[in-house]
Structure formats: C-alpha cells, structure tokens
Amino acid sequence: MALVLLALGVTLIAFVLTHLVPGDPAEANLGQRAGSDPVAVRVFRERYGLDKPIPVQYVVYLSNLLHGDMGESEQSRRPVRADLGEYIPATAELAVTSIILSGILGVGLGVLAALRRNQLTDQVLRVVSLGGMSMPSFWLALVALYVFFYQLSWVPGSGRLDPGVPIPPRATGMITLDALLSGRMDVFGNALQHLILPACVLAAFNMGLFTRFTRSAVLEVLENDYVRTARAKGLPERAVIFGHVLRAASPPIITVIGLAFGNVMTGTVLVENIFAWPGIGQYSFRSATTLDLPAIVGVMLFVALVYILANLVVDVLYGVIDPRVRLT
Amino acid sequence: MSVLSLRLRATTVAAAAWLQPLAVVGILFAGAWLIVALLAPWLSPYDPLDQGARLFQPPSVEHLFGTDDLGRDVFSRVLWGARVSIPLAVLLVSLAFLIGGTLGAVAGYLGGWVDELVMRAADLVFAVPTILLAMAVVAALGPSLVHAVIAVVLVAWPGHARVVRSLVRTTMQSDYVSVARLLGASVARALAVEVLPNVAGPVVVLAALDMGNAILLLSGLSFLGLGARPPAAEWGSMVSTGAQHFESWWMGVFPGLAIVSVVLAFNFLGDSLRDALDPQSVTGRVRGA
Amino acid sequence: MKPLLEVADLRISLPGPHGMVPIVDGVDFEVHGGQIFGLAGESGCGKTITALSLLGLLPAQARTSGRAEFGGRNLLTLKSAELRHVRGRQVAMVFQDPTSSLHPMLSIEHQLTEHPRVHLHMDQKQARRRALDLLEQVRIPDPETALHAYPHQFSGGMRQRIQIAMALACEPSLLIADEPTTALDVTVQAGILRLINGLRQTAGLAVILITHDLGVLSALADTVTVMYAGRVVEAGSTAHVLQRSRHPYTRGLLDSLPHPEKPDQPLVPIRGTPPSPAERPPGCVFHTRCMYAVENCRREVPPLIELSPGRVAACPVDPFATELVA
User: Fold this and answer.
1) N or C: which terminus of chain B has fewer CB atoms within 10 Å of its end residue's CB?
2) How far apart are CA A271 and CA A302, in angstroms?
3) Least CA distance to A209: which residue of chain B?
4) Which of B121, B236, B286 sits opposite A259 (nearest CB)?
C-alpha cells in the first residue's frame, strides 16, 4: 500500500537527518559526557551498526524503530519513546478539542457562506476565514493570553490545572476525560478552563481553512440536479441542505479535515510553548532549541505516523459515505 | 436548461466584480510593505540596533511602538524587519517554484517512473508537518537564517511541483498538443505555446498564497530561535522576546501585527485571483504554519 | 369539466447581461384529470422552464407572472411553506436525466421513503412497505434487494423507473415528466412510455408530458400544446394538432420527421434556427423561418385563433387552403 511506502519514506528522512550532523554520530547522539567515554561509544556503535556500510545502518535503524527504539533524548537521558509516551496525551487532548471546534464551526460557517453566496455574510466570512489563516499562532496565543488572562482574568494563565488541584487517576492521560471518568466535576471544570484558550487559538487556522473549503464544496454540489430533485419532493430546506447537499459535499471536506491534523501538530509546537502545556509540542520545542536531534526526529516520526493514520481513517470514511467508492 | 445556466453565469460574473475590493486591499497592503522593505533605512526614525532610549517605554509620540528590553525603538525594528522577512519570502517562493516547478514539469512531461518518484517524494514531505521538518533540518544543520530558508524550501517545493505537474499533464492531453503530435511538430514547442498561458494563472495564485505561508513559517522558526538570531530585527524573534516581557505588550503585539498584515495581504490577493480564474477551484494552500 | 390545472398568461423572465429577458411570453393551457397533456417544442422554447415554474423551482432571480390555478390556488404566488406541501405531494416531477437527478450517495430506500415520511407522516416501516409496492409498480426486478442498492448500480432505464416511483410515492394527482425518455436508449424508451401510459389508466393520474419528440406524443398524449420561442403556437387534441396541423411551425416539424408509412418521402427541415430569447423577431415570432409568411406577419403578433372548441392556432394563414407564398 502507498501508505506503507510513505511511512518507510519518512523513516528514511529521519535516518538521513540523524546522519547529517557533521562529526561522529556516536558522539553527537550521546552528548558531551558520554561521548568521551570509549565504552559508551563502542556500545553505541554496535547497537546502531555504525561500523557497517550505510544501507546496513539503515536496516538496523529501521529494525530498531520497529522495536520502538528511537534513540535516547540528549535532554532527558531517557529513551525518546518514554518521553513521547509521557507527553502525547496532553497534546492529544488539545489537538482533538481543537479539531472538533474548528470542524464544527468551520463547516457550519462554510455552509452559511455558500448559501449566502456573494452577500454581505459571505464577504464577512471570507475576510474572517482568511484572517484566521493569516495569523501566526504564536502571536495569536500571546494576544489571547494577554486579553483573556492578563486583562480580563477570564481564564487561567498556563498549564493544564491550577496548582493545588489534584490530578485525577490516570486512565487516558487526558485530564478532562480522566476527571469525567472518575466523577470529579470540579477537576473537570478547572481542566476545561485551562484547555479552552489554547484549543481556540489552535483552532483558528483550521477554522478559516474549513470555512473556505466547505464553501467551495457546497457551492459545487448546489449546482447538481439531485438538489433540485430533493426540493421538488417537497423536503424541508434543512433536510435538503444537511441530508442531501452536505452529504454529497462531505468527501472533500473530510479529506481536508484529515490533512488539517498536520496543521494542528504544527500549531502545537508554538502554542504549547506559550501556554506551558506539557505536550509533545513543547517537547519538540525544547529539543529544537537544545539541538537534541534524536528527540526531534522521534517527534517527527511519530507525528508523521499519526498523520498517515489519520488519512487512512479518511480513506475508510470515504468508503462509508460514498457508496460508489466501495469495493463490491 | 442551457438557457438558465447562461443567465445565471452572467449574474455570477457581475458578482465577481464586486469581490474585487479584497484584491485591491491586498495589493495596497502588499505594495506598502514592499515599499517599507525597500525604504526602511530612510523611513525609520531610529537605528534598529541603537540601545539609547529608556527601556520598556509604552507607545508614545517619540516611540510609536514603544521601546523594548534593550532600549531599542520597536517601530524602527518592525520596519527593518520587513527587510528580512519579505525578501527572504520572495527568495523562498522563487526557489520553491524553480525547484518544485521544474520537478513537476519534468514529472508531468515524462510520466512513468519519474512521475511516480517525484510524486512519492512530494507525498513524503506532505506527510511531515511543516514546522517539524523544518525544525529537524535546522537542528541537523545548525540554527541560522540560511538553514531556515533551506528548510522551508524543502517543505514548500511539493506544492509547486504538484500544481505544475497537473497543469502539464492536462495540457499534454489537450487537443492542441495531440494535433501537434500527429503533425509531427515539436511537442515541446506545442507545450510551451499552450502551457505557458495556462500555467501563469494557477502558479501566480500559488505563489501569492505561498508568500504568506513562507512568512508565517520563517517567523515561526525565528520565534523558536531557529532562524534569525538576535540582535537582528526579525518579526518572529521579536515576538519571542515580547513573550518574555508580557506586561510590555507592545514588544510582541506590533511585530505580530506586521506579520498578520503582510500575510493577510497576500492571502487576499491569492484568494481573489483564484476566484477570478476559477471560482470552484480549491487548489492552493491546505497546509499552514 | 373543471381542469385540474389551469395556466393563464404565464410569463417568465430571467436576468441576462443587459437586464431581464422574457423566456416565456404569455402561455395558456389546461390539464384535465386522468389525461396526458403533451407540451411540445424544440429545446430552448421554454417548456422546461414553464414546468419548473409550476413547482417554484426556478432560480431566485427569475420573475414570474400570470396564473397557474391548481386546487383553487395560484401556484405562482404560493409562499414557500405552502409550496412545500404541494411539491412531491400533489404535484410531482420527473426529470430528464435520471443519473444526475438521483442522489449518488443515498440508498434507494432512503430516496423513496424520505418524502412520504414528511408528507404522509408514515414511519419507516410503513414507508418501506410503500417503497416496495412502488418498485413493483414500476417493474423493478427484485425490489427487496433494490432497496438496499444505490443509483449507480442500476441501468439508465431502471433509474428512470426509480425516479418515477419516487414521484408517485405520495400519490400526486399531477405528474410532470420533462423529457422522460430523451436520455435513454430507444429500446428502453418504449418501456418507460408504456409505464406512464399505464399509470394514467390505473391511477387516474394526470400527466404533463414535455418532449420534442412528436412520435411520443402521438402515441400517448390526449391533448398537445406546441410552443415556439416562449409562446403557444398551436393547441388541441393530439389527432388534430398532429394530423391536421394548422400552424406552419407544427407543419414544418412534422415534415422534418420521417413518416413511418412513407419512408421515401423527403425530409424537409425548417430553414434557419430558433432565435435565442434575447433576439426574438418582432410580430409573429416564427415569421423569419416561415414558408407562408406575409408582410403582416412581421408587424403584428398573431393572436390565438379558436378554430373549434379547445383547438387554437396562432396563424391566420391556412396551410391547407393557401398556395405557397414566395
């Protein structure tokens, strides 16, 4: 399958990057202290097959990957895999919330813009969506924090919970879910307060994107005869728009939502940093500034994989929505 | 039904003319920034590196955007920032178009395994979120503006490659080229005559939208400390400094506003152009920074 | 007997590059219950637009005037809420291209049951049973399986039958069929026409059959109205209009078609082409292409002359009586 090739390709990029560093890879990956220890260096060399020819090294790299070994982070001195495991749930919580927000709002506004084509509503929405796509997320985050936290105190400043609020027992790692699952509504409320602003900031770009895309997709569908048939059957307009028009427009919209996952990951790098959200965005930021190559590459690999998976899900959904695509 | 559609198309064209204000706004703003980028040395009241003034002054008549943590005039630094971001973005988009466009054209023209190879490579780059790939490249090569540019070009070329490739392929299947083939005339020449006029449109749209993308990405990288280094006046790194001095909001807000206005201008331009060319098309930006 | 539908002075204009263009220019006709009413004319004469106006399916920018009396109300002035109750319930429509008129992603069951559930307040089970009945009525083989299927799995002829089934779902009293067989193979056309004919006999349905194919009309229609460039040029019983045509246009149409019993008779096409709505000639709209035109035809719009009850023609010239005028 094309997606498997894609995954392989990403690992190739990662491999190339780890070997781009000038100088000895062992020393580079082990950092200062361990790099001067001959025993550690030798162990490292053997583990990663550094004395063998490059293609073999790639195979070794690949097999290590499949075992979940992505090297060790220079920063934390832990396997990258462990680092990732700790930070992923926080980002997942943020990412999923933001996608849901931008998805519902974006698609809804896109339908509205299409139905009010070329009228004032459409124009305003056009400016708003282009605006959302023009703002650097790091800047938006700062402005939002300044206004809603610093000046208005509507939301708390940073982190996932106020200090002193107990972390609910870890079921999924997502604090809001875990709080709900353990029935601690007060913790849930607090966690939600912390979640709302970064999720909104993260949703801005995608909301603009979805609005534009949905508008185009819906406009194209509206020209089709089956929309006229639906009206000729005397169906209420709401049923025509949501049951017939949106249904037909959903394949391209879903595709964009799948692609938008990539945008969200990009956004988390910048947004988590500003909101002190302990997710892989912040992890990769730290790794980037300290030039912790194994960590960055590890994040890149993981995120690429998620993206590939998301598109796989989109493909499956395609088949569910559009019966013409299904294999009979 | 042909009569109906004829009538409706007439009204749509009339409406399209009403959409033009956005394009005008876009051109005005983009043009203004281009002028600023050119004339910054003469337009800015202070030297951007001059640390003479009092620290952390809020906006005032003498310092329109206030001063920063080292006593530098923020307004001047924002103006000078244009000299970094805009030329770099232009360079970026040009490089991406050259590399991506050539690869795309070759892939479209030759087809076969060359096409497969180029398209798979493009898919690959698409699979990795832009900033992560850029970060990884810069981390591997070392932080500097040059490396940041390389990283962004690496991330941006697939977009151009895809557009050019699909254009080349559609034109190659067009009747014009088929006839040229039949007559034994040079296909390359037929391509040049047919392709060039058609290519211009979508490519310009993509270039305009990519400019905005490039600026966002570059400033993002600088914000993370992976692009321009202080004390250079670059918008992204200025916002980063501003983040550390939250109460002096003017330090971060104005550079960011500069980014927003430039990107918005190019987005307006690109969007209006795309609508004028083909109202239904959804080519162009899907990935953001 | 009071007609089921009475259309009087129907005028429809659509926006053009230089203002509103009259597409339909004063059309009258009547449709009686249990009858097939044929609306004939070439493409572009306004017959489809006439039909769409009855159900309010024209774009928002269209301007309509006149009367279309149905069930004691003027369809053209109904508000959208009331119009919704007429559509699909009392007046149903079948469109020309069944492939594009059926939703590609919704199952046949869904498309057959959604409007009965709205109009007749059925639940899904009742609606489903009705759908099965309908599929049998239109002769779709294996209706049970067909319900789960999707439009792309059927042939063109079957899709048209499904469309007809869909139109009949709420037992309308009037069915509008816009070129129902034009998009289908010749071999399939006969079946659809037989189906429509059967419906008129068993269900007492009134049908507006819109087509450019005079052969179809001669087989099925009880009355025929011929339209040209937005106006009615001739109307009456099918036998009269098609066998003893009075208007030069109708004559011209018939002469340009092959006669099934006289294969050697030369085909005489009407010279010229139909005018676009914006460029209609003054006076009699057909005069530029008419063999019998006289000077007056250019100056005055000929009124519809009543030749006998229910039989009208918009031409003072009697082709049977006059010699050819140069």
Assistant:
1) N
2) 19
3) B286
4) B286
Distances (CA, A) of C13 to A319, C8, C163, C180: 43, 16, 29, 25
How many CB pairs below 8 Å do chains A and B form together? 186
User: B143 near B134, Cβ under 8 Å?
Assistant: no
Provide the chain C residues 266-285 that lie in CB contact (below 8 A) with chain B. 277
* Residue C21 CB coordination number (10 Å): 21
Q: Which residues pair with C232 in a beta bridge?
A: C227
Contact indicator for A257, A103 with CB cutoff of 8 Å = yes
Chain B within 8 Å of C61 (Cβ-Cβ)? yes
The CB density around residue C6, as the number of other CB atoms within 10 Å, is 16
- Burial per residue of A240-251, b for 16 or more beta-carbon CB atoms within 10 angstroms, e otherwise: bbebbbbbbbbb
Task: Tell me which residue of B80, B94, B75 sits closest to B149, measured CA to CA.
Answer: B94
In angstroms, the CA B275 to CA B144 distance is: 38
Chain B CB within 8 Å of residue C263 CB: no
Comparing CA positions, the residue from C127, C65, C115, C64 lying closest to residue C90 is C115
Q: How far is CA B228 from CA B94, B145, B149, B232, in A?
A: 20, 5, 10, 7
Residues C49 and A228: beta-carbon distance below 8 Å: no
Q: Tell me, yes or no, if A118 comes closer than 8 A to chain B by beta carbon.
A: yes
Q: Which two tokens stand for residue B70?
A: 């080292």
Q: Is the pLDDT of residue B100 over 70?
A: yes
Burial class (CB in 10 A: 0-12, 13-18, 19+), C81: exposed
Q: Is the separation of the CB atoms in C263 and C253 below 8 Å?
A: no
Please state whether the peptide bond connecting residue C302 to the residue before it is cis, i.e. omega within 30 degrees of 0: no
Q: Please judge whether B4 and C49 are an interchain contact, meaning their C-beta atoms are less than 8 angstroms apart.
A: yes
Determine, for residues B282 and A205 on separate chains, whether the beta-carbon distance falls below 8 Å: no
Tokens of residue C135, six digits: 């599929």
Per-residue model confidence as pLDDT tens digits over C211-250: 988 888 988 899 999 999 889 989 999 988 888 888 888 8
Q: What is the ipTM of this complex?
A: 0.87
Torsion C297-C303-C304-C306 (CA) sign: negative
Positive/negative CA dihedral, C232, C237, C238, C240: negative
- For C296-319, the pLDDT digits (tens) are 788 888 888 887 777 888 887 766
**Rounded-to-integer distance, Cα A84 and Cα A284, Å:** 10
The pLDDT score that the predictor gives to residue B49 is: 80
Q: Which of A234, A321, A323 sits opposite C87 (nearest CB)?
A: A234
pLDDT tens digits for C89-119?
A: 999 999 999 999 999 999 999 999 999 999 9
pLDDT band at B187 (very low <50, low <70, confident <90, very high): low
Q: H/E element holding C203?
A: helix C186-203
Q: Calculate the CA A315 to chain-centre distance.
A: 18
Residues of C in contact with B10 (CB under 8 A): 15-17
Kind plus residue range of the DSSP H or E element containing C243: helix C238-243
Are C305 and C234 in contact by the 8 Å Cβ rule? The answer is no
CB contacts, 8 Å: B250 with chain A: none
The answer to whether A248 faces chain C, any CB pair under 8 Å, is yes
Q: CB B123: neighbour CB atoms within 10 A?
A: 18
List the alpha helices (DSSP H) in A67-169: 80-115, 120-134, 137-144
Contact residues for C18 (Cβ-Cβ < 8 A; gap 6+): C278
- In angstroms, what separates the C-alpha of B7 from chain C's closest C-alpha? 5
Interface of A with B in 246-285 (CB under 8 A): 252, 256, 259-260, 262-263, 265-267, 269-270, 273-274, 284-285
C39 forms bridges with which residues in the sheet? C210, C225
Q: How many CB atoms lie within 10 A of CB A9?
A: 18
